[in-house]
Design brief:
Shape: globular
Radius of gyration: 19 Å
Structural class: alpha+beta
Bound molecules: biotin
Distance between the termini: 56 Å
Strand order of the largest sheet: 1-2-3-7-6-5-4
Number of domains: 2
Largest sheet: 7 strands, mixed
Oligomer: single chain
CATH architecture of the largest domain: 2-Layer Sandwich
CATH superfamily of the largest domain: Bira Bifunctional Protein, Domain 2
């Protein structure tokens, strides 16, 4: 039987490693908390400090998109949230989520994971399994948002609830070797800090370029659903505000600002087209 890896945070060392960065100050660490996003969102206004980082070994009420739960096994995930000052219009905040997805990919690439990919708008995938989810939420302070990252690091397949065992992944499952959550966190923050600065300076080109390079669905046929809408089409591009440009079967080109993307496998697509032809 595989033993639980010993991969705890050395907080003193972590603080030293983060000392040169703007993100990570102050640092709040919890062995267990309901949700790191919720912790930062609930800070009283006079303590809302851009750059603040909440880090946890375990969350009891981890939050995901669409009011879903984000579950973890204690000590096996990298779970953290940062407070960001977001002075640009809210329509451009999704670029920060995409920038964070790129920074997760780059942290993994540094660790020799060959092709981590971004599943627009907020997931990082390895070998078509979701290893990371990102959740940006408003806070009570105007123009301050919280960006939360959950990265599956040491999970074995049995750590995931059965419905997720075909779609969820972890770094350990991708490459069986020692993983350090601390190294991953430091690499992420150092990389993301540059994007964050560029975003504030209205220089979005690098974020968009780096994201396009890693987007799994560019040029692919997808379904997109969520927030009561559903569409199908070919992903043409990522627009300047981070929205997805979709060419629908009618030829109409639309932009999607949020939702969940599922790639249509060729077999399914051919089956659908086959049955549509039969129906006609
Ligand atoms: C998703 O894929 O739906 C987004 C999941 C985001 C999970 C992270 S874990 C750290 C932070 N705290 C939370 O409660 N959620 C985010």
């Amino acid at each position: 039987m595989t033993q639980t890896p010993r991969d705890s945070f050395d907080l003193q060392r972590l603080q030293q490693r983060l000392a040169g960065l703007k993100l990570g100050q102050p640092l709040y660490y919890f062995e267990t908390i309901d949700s790191t996003n919720q912790f930062l969102r609930a800070l009283p206004p006079n303590q809302i400090q851009p750059g603040a980082l909440a880090l946890a070994d375990h969350q009891t009420k981890g939050r995901g998109r669409f009011h879903r739960r984000w579950c973890d096994t204690p000590g096996r995930s990298l779970l953290f949230s940062v407070l960001l000052e977001a002075s640009r219009p809210a329509s451009l905040w999704p670029l920060l989520t995409l920038g964070a997805a790129v920074s997760v990919c780059r942290a993994l690439e540094r660790e020799e994971i060959a092709r981590p990919q971004i599943r627009w708008p907020n997931d990082v995938m390895i070998d078509e399994r979701k290893v990371c989810g990102i959740l940006a939420e408003k806070t009570s302070a105007p123009k301050v948002l919280v960006l939360g990252v959950g990265l599956n690091v040491h999970q074995r397949i049995e750590d995931f609830p059965s419905p997720l065992r075909r779609s969820a992944g972890s770094l350990q499952l991708a490459a069986e070797r020692p993983w350090s959550r601390e190294n991953l966190l430091v690499a992420f923050l150092a990389d993301f800090e540059t994007f964050y600065r560029q975003w504030r300076d209205e220089q979005d080109a690098t974020i968009l370029h780096e994201c396009r390079r890693r987007m799994s669905t560019l040029g692919r046929q997808v379904y997109i659903h969520g927030h009561g809408c559903r569409a199908e089409g070919i992903v043409m591009d990522l627009d300047d505000d981070g929205s997805l440009v979709l060419r629908e079967p009618t030829g109409i080109v639309s932009r999607r600002h949020s939702g969940e993307v599922e790639e249509i496998a060729w077999e399914t697509k051919n089956k659908c087209e086959g049955s549509r032809l039969k129906d006609e």
